[in-house]
Amino acid sequence: MTNKHCFEAPDKSLRDILRSTDDKSENKPFGGMTVVMGGDFRQILPVVPKGRRSHIIDASLKRSYLWKHFEEIKLTQNMRLTAHTNCKEEQKKTKEFAEWILSIGNGLAGDKDDESWIKIPKDLILQRGENEMEAIVNSTYPELTLKYNNIAYLEERAILCPRNEMVDEINSYVMSQIPGEETTYLSSDTVCKAISAQESDDQMYPKEFLNSLKFPGTPNHELRLKVGLPIMLLRNINQSAGLCNGTRLTITQLGKWFIEAQIITGTNIGNKRHELFNYEAK
């Protein structure tokens, strides 16, 4: 759910733009244009960095001056239940899970003494073993070393993590399980000199500091890959070819300046693509 200010900004812009054609647009929400929004306040709330509960609630669309102008339409039929019409047992499990999720959103699944604590059913919990990474990977990807080249096997599986640090840990463990030689790529670690910059400015950004920087959505300075490793695109490169943000692929070839991979999701499954990038193999 996006912060309320992301809706208020286009509202003010549209009012200002459309008043040139209609004087009354200045006093109408979104300049009189019809806007349709979708979401669930019980599942996805605005992200407020280091914000408390009150800050998150205050940033929601319901606290905006625009909310009184919306007509709320609720969806009441669970479409997931219709997917198991021929299997009553699966339909029952899906219905129980849907009702449990709904109870969490309604605030009814909390502990009697403390509503902030929710008891998770045992069948949804992965039991912790001696090696936590091994337990997670083996539960999601059983027999990984034998089936990592199977497109159907990879397409229907994924591990979701709450933090990027955990993503890096799981990725490193999965790569260690896949056979083959590892290739390491290093990013550019130099500062572009500006006309107004002084020579002493370069000393403010040593390579060790640049290499330690980590940004969401951007690969780290050191990128380690293997042939056969599943990867995911983070940018829209070529939508007509199926290379979009979120597309999953498996690496088929690693060159010095390019990566060749086979698409395993979407409408272009099986197609091989190779793209240049600004990393250099070490």
From TrEMBL:
Residues 208-254 form the DNA helicase Pif1-like 2B domain. Belongs to the helicase family. Its EC number is 5.6.2.3. GO terms for biological process: DNA recombination; DNA repair; telomere maintenance. One of its GO terms (molecular function) is 5'-3' DNA helicase activity. Residues 1-113 form the DNA helicase Pif1-like DEAD-box helicase domain. It catalyses: ATP + H2O = ADP + phosphate + H(+). Keywords: ATP-binding, DNA damage, DNA recombination, DNA repair, Helicase, Hydrolase, Nucleotide-binding. This is ATP-dependent DNA helicase. It comes from Paspalum notatum var. saurae. InterPro entries: DNA_helicase_pif1-like_DEAD (IPR010285), P-loop_NTPase (IPR027417), Pif1-like_2B_dom (IPR049163). Its cofactor is Mg(2+).
